Prior knowledge:
Order of helices and strands: HEHEHEHEHEHEHEHEHHHHEEEEEEEEEE
Radius of gyration: 21 Å
CATH topology of the largest domain: TIM Barrel
Largest sheet: 8 strands, parallel, barrel
Strand content: 15-25%
Low-confidence stretches: 1-11, 18-29
Helix content: 25-40%
Number of helices: 12
Number of domains: 2
Number of strands: 18
CATH superfamily of the largest domain: Glycosidases
Amino acid sequence: xxxxxxxxQALGLLAAALLALGTAxxxxxxxxxxxxxxxxxGSVTNLAEIADAGFSLVAGPARRGFLDAAKxxxxxxxxxPGSSAGEHFNVAKVRSTVTKLDxxxxxxxxxxxxxxxxxxxxxxxxxxxHRFVKRLGATKPTSLVxxxxxxxxxxxxxADITMVxxxxxxxxxxxxxxxxxxxxxxxxxAERPLIAVxxxxxxxxxxxxxxxxxxxxPPTERELRSMTxxxxxxxxxxxxYFSYADMxxxxxxxxxxxxxxxxxVGEVRRxxxxxxxxxxxxxxxxxxxxxxxxxxxxxxxxxxxxxxxxKRGDGLLPPGHYILAVNTTSLPHTYRFxxxxxxxxxxxxxxxxxxxxxxxxxxxxxxAPFAVxxxxxxxxxx
Length: 382
């Protein structure tokens, strides 16, 4: 029940923010669009390309000119209220910024602070900033970004929207990303929206932050896709990617990364009914053919599987139940799971032109490194 409330109320809050973008004459994001955002977008001239790629949100400045340009492109903006939570929180500047811009239709959220857990800003100071913004009569939700899921115990229920960023490629196992999204979801009120922030940059551009690390590189498209679906599997209600500026560093140094990200975002938009689906409990049983590789580097199941219920379907995803399974490792797996109910029908694999191998009770399938499979809609049970 809590999971059902979580998704409905969380998406209701996010949709309300996007609803403000529905102004005539603009490129408008649908009010119920799944939140997909992008950091460091640079000039307003980039917003049209970003909107066309499927993004509905960006992180940007609280400036009327930027907000007007975002509105014209149907994009919401997460923006600082003029000062970051902490020792030097400037109440006068925040009062001026919120008073002037809270009513702007493109303003999506007031960004209280980035990674307070990394920068040793106490939860009390973050709470004080949140309360001050609320006392000013702000109608837009507040948000903050955590560096690690462990910190959600202290910070997860302060802002209206909790975000968490993990950038593991290639210096950490990819499973670290999923693990921290999961930690944040478990430690955060189930009704509070959770946004996963996914790496879409090369650490080489920020090597001073990872002294001693070698062979740095950007994530591959398979890794981007795996992290994106892991966000859904672990209960995130929206996604941001970091960052556009890095992908265009030094005259588009990473054009292939930008193309890969656009393909992943395009797939999320195409499968939006799945990303807006509700998580449903089922008495899952699963098994790995190779028991030696059944755990990933985070000591969780190498393939993560969840049962989702699509209520508002479309031509691609009719209403019904679906099982999402994500390989979080660079190894192949033969993985089997028990269906929620026994069936005599076939189990289609979404957009793969095939049906899963099943005896009516179990499904068995092969998973390439970082592969994602979506099974459904599941046939009715016996």
